[in-house]
């Protein structure tokens, strides 16, 4: 067997090849891309018997995604994705100095897969359909997290100079609130909003009980409140307008990405089974499939799958 440690960076890979005794057979710095992967195949080919199978090559790398990893899997190598924290702990336990460098990490990773590959989990052989679902599901979730961050920034700004807006709008990420804040981002301009303008924004956002809500919003925006100096208010209003624009764009992209998630997940043969489980709709079902994958050999038993769930896969899916 041949053991390869691959310490990757954005534009290059430091690799080291070892035999079963841990002797260094070769090391190199390879550029990212086709030329680099071809050079790695060449290095591996020099060390293998012509009758050797590709799965006799065991490769450790600190990622489980990207075109480089996919090229390794396509070549038939056994690829193990190793957490960088595992590499750091292993390095500390085996190195006197504990010093870190890219070539040294390639050596450490090669040692790890040689000595501990039976304790590591190989990169799952998920289908391209499952990988696509993972991409869009994670992107959708990240956009939602970004929206929450910007909504908190908007809330903080309003609390500092325009607290009546917080009383007026229960959902700062709602289309009606964002439209009105973009139009009237400060107390004076908000107080001048007419009932007709507020009602139109509520209707465009498809709110219920529009007339009642419009009156409550108008009253809240006209309520007396403590204020800031005019120049400070102007600065805050610019901030509010910017955050409203960002949140509006995020809402549009979240909706667009949700459509992508539902489309990709809906085409997967396991979708019907997954959504039949209690509490799982299209979005949560897609996240579950994305994190668990669809490789039938990924888990040796139901217990192994449960252990993976206990270590955070299910919480990652529903976060």
UniProtKB/TrEMBL annotation:
- Can you give the residue ranges of the Transposase IS110-like N-terminal domain? 4-163
GO BP annotations, alphabetical order: DNA transposition
- List, in alphabetical order, the Gene Ontology terms for molecular function in this entry: DNA binding; transposase activity
- Which PANTHER family has this protein been placed in? PUTATIVE TRANSPOSASE FOR IS117-RELATED, TRANSPOSASE FOR INSERTION SEQUENCE ELEMENT IS1111A
Name it.
Transposase
């Amino acid at each position: 067997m041949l053991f390869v440690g691959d310490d990757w960076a954005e534009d290059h890979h430091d690799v080291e090849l070892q035999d079963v005794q841990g002797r260094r057979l070769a090391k190199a710095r390879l550029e990212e891309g086709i030329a680099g992967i071809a050079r790695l195949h060449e290095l591996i080919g020099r060390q293998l018997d012509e009758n050797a199978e590709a799965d006799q090559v065991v490769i450790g790398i600190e990622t489980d995604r990207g075109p480089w990893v996919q090229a390794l899997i396509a070549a038939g190598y056994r690829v193990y994705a190793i957490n960088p924290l595992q590499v750091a702990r292993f390095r500390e336990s085996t190195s006197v100095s504990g010093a870190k460098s890219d070539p040294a990490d390639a050596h450490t990773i090669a040692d790890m897969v040689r000595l501990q590959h039976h304790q590591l989990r190989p990169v799952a052989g998920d289908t391209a359909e499952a990988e696509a679902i993972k991409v869009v599901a994670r992107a959708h979730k990240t956009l939602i997290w970004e929206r929450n961050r910007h909504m908190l920034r908007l809330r903080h700004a309003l609390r500092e100079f325009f607290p009546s807006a917080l009383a007026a709008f229960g959902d700062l990420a709602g289309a009606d609130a964002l439209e009105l804040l973009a139009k009237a981002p400060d107390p004076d301009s908000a107080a001048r909003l007419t009932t007709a303008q507020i009602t139109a924004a509520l209707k465009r956002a498809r709110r219920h009980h529009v007339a009642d809500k419009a009156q409550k919003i108008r009253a809240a925006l006209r309520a007396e409140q403590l204020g800031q100096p005019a120049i400070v208010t102007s600065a805050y209003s610019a901030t509010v307008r910017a955050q409203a624009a960002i949140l509006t764009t995020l809402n549009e992209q979240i909706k667009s990405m949700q459509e992508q998630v539902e489309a990709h997940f809906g085409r997967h043969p396991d979708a019907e089974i997954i959504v039949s489980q209690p509490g799982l709709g299209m979005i949560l079902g897609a996240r579950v499939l994305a994190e668990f994958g669809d490789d039938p050999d990924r888990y040796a038993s139901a217990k192994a799958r449960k252990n993976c769930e206990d270590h955070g896969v299910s919480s990652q899916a529903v976060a």
